[in-house]
Amino acid sequence: MMLETPAEWGDQQVSILDLFGTFPGELGQDKAAVDQTVADTATTTRIGEDFAEGKAMEERGTSTFFEDGEQLDLNSLTDLTDPFGRAIAN
Known about the structure:
Blueprint: H1 6-9, H2 17-20, H3 23-26, H4 31-39, H5 41-56, E1 66-67, E2 70-71, H6 78-89
């Protein structure tokens, strides 16, 4: 769903919680449980930690992939699949 609607939520400077809040119901999830998780301070703490880690790793955006701590430069599908294939083989 997120991949189908990036024009609606990408690069926003305002909350898009209302849009994202529609996704659980559309996916058959318990919306009340999702809302409770979103509102939980543990969730916002984890998001802050993840954001700080991404910033420290010089993450460029969503999605950013790393292999052994090195950010992958993706220009083709094999730029993503080859490192994962090697990691699985090892």
